[in-house]
Design brief:
Elements lengths: L17 E11 L3 E5 L6 E10 L1 H8 L25 E10 L7 E9 L5 E8 L13 E5 L8 E8 L2 E6 L4 E6 L11 E6 L6 E10 L9 H9 L1
Antiparallel strand pairs: 1-12, 2-11, 3-8, 3-12, 4-5, 4-11, 5-6, 6-7, 8-9, 9-10
GO molecular function: hydrolase activity, acting on glycosyl bonds
Protein name: Beta-fructosidase
Keywords: Glycosidase, Hydrolase
Length: about 230
């Protein structure tokens, strides 16, 4: 749709691993963190749409005193999901403990540009993904194009120590390896958060529990047939 993005998306067969699902429609105000009741959150498939409250958008865009920060913002260098701006960050904290001592936030950050146009970033923050001190924990991400009239969409695949995040249908993709020490198996939780200073966000999303993939080795006969070719 953009004419300039290489889109990446999970293969359709991933859906065959989906088990039970829950749907949510939640409005989250500025500075909110909401637990999402899905049971164990160690293996999940999350599809979500976000919409910033129109009044919040109009207030920011029409206020000359709101500093334009889009040109200086960077997922990697702007401090991660705890640094609050007028319109973000907001998204999910996956592989999180109940106390949030470990968590991996996947989020959008929307910033006002000098031309008063909005610029959207899609990021994954692994800086608090593990309490282990011998792990490299960077912050990843980049600008993601959002066309006029589009909602902000993300899909997240969580598989124990792997978090794959797809923004705007795969225009921006981030694969992260994380090493939680306590946010594992049944102790892994899911949270929805909105760290924006001034914006209320509506999140509509579905969360599937995921089965493990089953690897079927070749039979001896198949191996012999392959060796002959």
């Amino acid at each position: 749709k953009t004419g300039k993005n290489l889109v990446q998306w999970p293969v359709e067969e991933i859906k065959s691993l989906r088990l039970s699902s829950k749907q949510f429609d939640l409005e989250v105000g500025p500075g909110s963190v909401v637990p999402v009741d899905v049971g164990s959150a160690a293996q999940l498939d999350i599809e979500a749409e976000f919409e910033i409250n129109k009044e919040s958008l109009d207030k920011i865009l029409g206020n000359a005193s709101v500093v334009a920060k889009a040109e200086e913002f960077s997922c990697e260098k702007s401090g991660g999901s705890t640094v609050r701006g007028a319109l973000g960050p907001f998204g999910f904290s996956v592989l999180a403990t109940e106390s949030l001592s470990e968590q991996t936030p996947v989020y959008f950050y929307v910033a006002k540009g000098k031309d008063s146009e909005l610029k959207t970033f899609f990021c994954t923050d692994t800086s608090r993904s593990s309490v282990a001190n011998d792990v490299v924990k960077p912050i990843y991400g980049s600008v993601v194009p959002v066309l006029k009239g589009e909602k902000l969409t993300m899909r997240i695949l969580v598989d124990h120590s792997i978090v794959e995040a797809f923004g705007q249908g795969g225009r921006t993709c981030i694969t992260s390896r994380v090493y939680p020490t306590t946010a594992i198996y049944g102790a892994a939780k899911l949270f929805l958060f909105n760290n924006a200073l001034d914006a209320t966000v509506t999140a509509s999303f579905t969360v599937w529990q995921m089965n493990s993939a089953f690897i079927h080795p070749y039979s001896d006969e198949a191996v012999r047939a392959l060796s002959r070719t």
